[in-house]
Structures are given as structure tokens and as C-alpha cells.
Design a protein that fits this description.
The structure holds 2 protein chains of 2 kinds. Chain A has 14 helices and 13 strands. Chain A is an alpha/beta fold. Classes of the chains: A alpha/beta, B alpha+beta.
């Protein structure tokens, strides 16, 4: 049997061969293995030059200064560093945080942990399309609100939030804004300076880069802007790396891979974006023709790389088991076991528990072809009909 | 989640899925779609012997596979108000995880409901007969 069609690019992407080659060059070069913090010899200098070059690539790709880029082990660490770091730094004066119910667990779980430690957290509920109104953020802000954390592109439904408008609200109130942009790069325009956010989390492996590396972008405000720069307490101690904000030897080959991946992503042509959009439309037309298929999230304010749909009259675990030999994708949630919870994102949008469980997230990417989409539609049409017949629905 | 070969076989090809009709068919159901698991059995019996069976199931692959297997085993069996094979034995045969055993109880309830109705119908016929 041939390998299943991979439609889970929102979960992770294969490493681009050009990225892998660049990383291999760094790993195998005789002179590039040095510790980038070792400024006392040329081996360290050479590694440091590679790290700084990658920093520039990431900065250019997301519209910020290279100096704003802080390396982390991934977006999860970046989210934790932003949320715990800011909360800890301002703990004496401000202990309220605003976020949304549809955020990634890497934001929600740190917020819940802060609640256990005595902070207050407001969880905003988006509208039925998954969109937050900046007015909701304004209404939720309190005198002691220290941080607002809102994702740019939702990882389950692909909805894009209006970050500049939310940033304006936060700036007016004096609350810091953190944006989880792990799903954004290469899928839609990302320009940190234009966003007006204070912190932004990035991941390499969602953008055809390696796993295990990411970044936290930290805005450095000029006094002339009339705004201060955000401060935060590090999570890791043990060295002065990354301006004393993230201890640990920087993995040169990893950040070089991320830099290369981001450079490639930033040059993604409009032709490729249009191609993905056409594939998504083709996919949705095919799914809609099955009947009893509901699209989740805004079709307008979303990236073309993601499509989330619920299938009426079929049970979620059976749906996933039926398509597994042919299609590699995930449910709206990580609900692959009998004990799994239905997608909290879809529940927040008002979907029933049953429909939340019987949802699938289609993640389209560079390798996705028309044949892949036709295969997906054919398999789903066949298996959904079969399961509905078995269920008498 | 991984499923054993028997579960996959009966989940992918549940030959006896469907419904029966006729005066000699008794129906029983349990569970609910809203709660995530619903099973219905149709049992066709002549005297105290099962002649045919069909099922409908909204549920996980284990639920569908067990219902399909039970239905296939039915023809020729003596009609009793109990599963042809107990829940414990079924869970072993299909390698059903312990947290999902409740779903097999729904299968059992549906089977017993159909079998009990079938027995009542057969007993009523025996009393009527001269």
C-alpha cells in the first residue's frame, strides 16, 4: 500500500532539502563547531557569525530588527517565556492577564498555571467564526492587566486575528501584547513592527525548518515612541547567552536551519499562495458535495493552508480510523483516543461535542497536489457514506 | 489508537450492517448518538433459534466491530436473553481498552433488549398455538 497523503502541515512540515543541506554543512564543517559564545578564538567567532546571520534572516522575514530576535527551543518555550517572564517581572504591581479560549495549549496552560499561583486570567470567547473583536479586548482590560496574549493564525481553524487593532487597544491601555505567530510565517504576511505587538513567538518546524528551535521576538521601543520596552524575567539561568534572557549554548546548526527556512518562507511567491488557495477551494467544494459537512471558522479571515470541517452523522474516532490508511491528518483536537477531549477551539465556537469530535483539520503545504486533494475527497466521500450507513444516520 | 486485526476486519467490512423487517423480527437499542455511542440489533427468530441478525451502530471502531461480529455469530444460535459471548470475553477478543468497556455494556444492553423481545414474542406464539 502506498504512503498516506500528508495533509497535516499545520502540525509539522518536512524539512526543506535546502535547509537540511545548510544544516549539514554547519554540522560537518571543521571550523564551525565552536561555541558561539566563545569569543576568545576563531572557532567561536565563526559560529557566532552564523548565529547572527540567521538572526538577520529571521528579522528580515518577520519585519523586525535582528536584535529583537531571541532564540528559544521552539514556540512553546517562547510562549512560556513571554507569559511567565512578563507576569513574574511585573508581579508586584499587575497580576491580570487576558487571553482567548481558542489559544494553543502552550499559551493556555501557562495561563492556568499562573491562575494556580494567584494571577487572574480573563479568557475571551471569539465569535462563531473564531474572530475576536478588539472591543472585547478593550472591555476585558483592567487597571492591573499586565499582558494580553492573542495568537495571529489559529492552529486548528486557520483564522487570522486583527493584531494591529488589538495592539492599538493594548498600547492605549498600557498592557503588553504577546502574539503567538507559530502558524503564520509563510502562510500570510507577518510584519512585527507593523503589528505593534511587544512580543511574538515563532517556530521553525512549521515553516519547513528543523524541530527544536524557535524564537521570541522582543520589541525594543524608542523613548521617542512614547512607549517603554517590555521587560521580563528569564526562565532559564546558567549563562549570559541571549542578552541574559535565555541561558544555554545556542545550537548553531538549528538556528542556521531556522534562518534559512524563514528566508525561503519570506520569498514564497504569490503564485504559490494562490495555488494553495485554489487547492483549498477545490477541497472545500469536494467536501461540501458529500453533504452534512460544516466548515469551521471564518472562510474570509483565514489562511488558505488550513481548512477545518465537521462531519455530521459520523463518530470522530471511527472517522479517523477509517481514513487513516489513506490520509495523514488530524482531528480538530488531538482526540485520537477514546479518552480524548473534543476540540476546545470548536467548542468555543459553539459547535456541539459530537460535531467537535467528528471534525478534521486539513493542513495544506508545498507538497500538496491536485491529486492529493482529489484522493482526500474520494476517501472521505466513501468512508463518511459507509459510516453513516452503518450508523443509520 | 491501534486496533487488532479482528477489530479492523469487522470495522472495515461490517457485512451485517442494516435492518431487518417482518413480523418475526425483534428490535432492541441502547445508548444515544448525543452521548457518542448508540447500537441497535434486529433479531429474526423462528421458535427459539436465531435465523438472522442485523445491526446499526454509531460509535468507535470497537463498538462497530463487536456489534458486527455478534450479528454474524447469531444465525443458528439458541435464543437467550444474554450475549453469545460475555463482555469480558469480547473485550479480550477485540482488545478493547479498559476505559472503553462501558461501550461494550451498551452493545450488551441493545442485544439483551432485542433478545428479550424476541423471546417474549416466541413465548406468546407458543401459548397461542393449540
Amino acid at each position: 500500500m502506498s504512503a498516506p497523503v500528508y495533509l497535516d502541515h499545520a502540525s509539522t512540515t518536512p524539512v526543506d532539502p535546502r535547509v537540511a543541506q545548510r544544516m549539514a554543512e554547519v554540522l560537518s564543517a571543521e571550523s564551525q563547531f565552536g561555541n558561539p559564545s566563545s569569543s576568545s578564538h576563531s572557532f567561536g567567532d565563526e559560529a557566532a557569525a552564523l548565529v547572527e546571520s540567521a538572526r538577520k534572516q529571521v528579522g528580515v522575514a518577520v519585519g523586525c530588527s535582528a536584535d529583537d530576535v531571541l532564540w528559544t527551543s521552539g514556540a512553546t518555550e517562547a510562549n512560556n517565556l513571554a507569559i511567565f517572564g512578563v507576569a513574574q517581572y511585573y508581579r508586584e504591581s499587575r497580576r491580570h492577564i487576558v487571553t482567548a479560549r481558542t489559544e494553543h495549549k502552550a499559551v493556555l496552560d501557562p495561563c492556568r498555571e499562573l491562575e494556580r499561583r494567584g494571577w487572574k486570567v480573563t479568557y475571551l470567547v471569539p465569535d462563531r467564526e473564531g474572530l475576536l473583536d478588539p472591543g472585547q479586548v478593550a472591555d476585558a482590560l483592567q487597571p492591573d492587566t499586565v499582558l494580553v496574549s492573542v495568537m495571529h493564525v489559529n492552529n486548528e481553524i486557520g483564522v487570522v486575528q486583527n493584531i494591529p487593532a488589538i495592539a492599538a487597544v493594548c498600547a492605549q491601555h498600557g498592557a503588553w501584547l504577546h502574539v503567538d505567530a507559530a502558524q503564520s510565517v509563510g502562510k500570510c504576511p507577518v510584519h512585527f513592527s507593523s503589528f505593534g505587538a511587544d512580543l511574538m513567538s515563532l517556530s521553525a518546524h512549521k515553516v519547513y525548518g528543523p524541530k527544536g528551535v524557535g524564537a521570541l521576538i522582543v520589541a525594543r521601543r524608542d523613548v521617542a515612541e512614547g512607549r517603554r520596552s517590555v521587560q521580563f524575567t528569564p526562565l532559564l539561568f546558567g549563562g549570559g547567552q541571549e542578552r541574559n534572557l535565555r541561558a544555554g549554548t545556542v545550537a548553531t546548526h538549528q538556528v542556521v536551519g531556522m534562518g534559512q527556512a524563514f528566508e525561503l518562507a519570506s520569498t514564497t511567491s504569490s503564485i504559490e499562495t494562490a495555488r494553495i488557495a485554489q487547492l483549498q477551494q477545490r477541497l472545500w467544494r469536494g467536501l461540501a458535495a458529500i453533504g452534512g459537512v460544516l466548515r469551521n471558522g471564518s472562510a474570509v479571515h483565514s489562511v488558505p493552508h488550513l481548512l477545518n470541517a465537521s462531519f455530521e452523522g459520523v463518530e470522530g474516532e471511527s472517522l479517523l480510523a477509517a481514513i487513516r490508511p489513506h490520509l495523514a491528518l488530524s482531528t480538530g483536537s488531538a482526540c485520537t483516543s477514546a479518552l480524548g477531549e473534543p476540540s476546545y477551539v470548536l467548542r468555543a465556537l459553539g459547535r456541539s461535542e459530537r460535531l467537535s469530535e467528528s471534525s478534521l483539520r486539513f493542513g495544506l503545504g508545498r507538497s500538496t497536489t491536485v491529486a492529493d486533494i482529489e484522493m482526500a475527497v474520494a476517501v472521505l466521500s466513501r468512508e463518511v457514506s459507509r459510516l453513516r450507513k452503518v450508523a443509520g444516520t | 489508537m491501534n486496533y487488532n486485526a479482528l477489530t479492523r476486519r469487522y470495522f472495515e467490512m461490517p457485512a451485517a450492517a442494516g435492518e431487518l423487517s417482518g413480523a418475526d423480527v425483534s428490535r432492541g437499542a441502547s445508548g444515544s448518538v448525543a452521548a457518542g455511542t448508540w447500537v441497535q440489533f434486529d433479531l429474526q427468530a423462528a421458535s427459539t433459534t436465531l435465523q438472522a441478525a442485523r445491526f446499526l451502530a454509531f460509535g468507535c471502531p470497537h463498538t462497530i466491530a463487536v456489534a458486527a461480529w455478534l450479528t454474524e455469530q447469531a444465525p443458528g444460535r439458541v435464543l437467550t436473553p444474554a450475549l453469545p459471548e460475555g463482555v469480558q470475553a469480547l473485550s479480550t477478543r477485540f482488545e478493547v481498552p479498559i476505559p472503553k468497556l462501558g461501550r461494550l455494556l451498551i452493545v450488551e444492553d441493545a442485544w439483551i433488549a432485542a433478545a428479550t423481545r424476541a423471546l417474549a414474542r416466541v413465548n406468546a406464539l407458543i401459548k397461542i398455538a393449540p
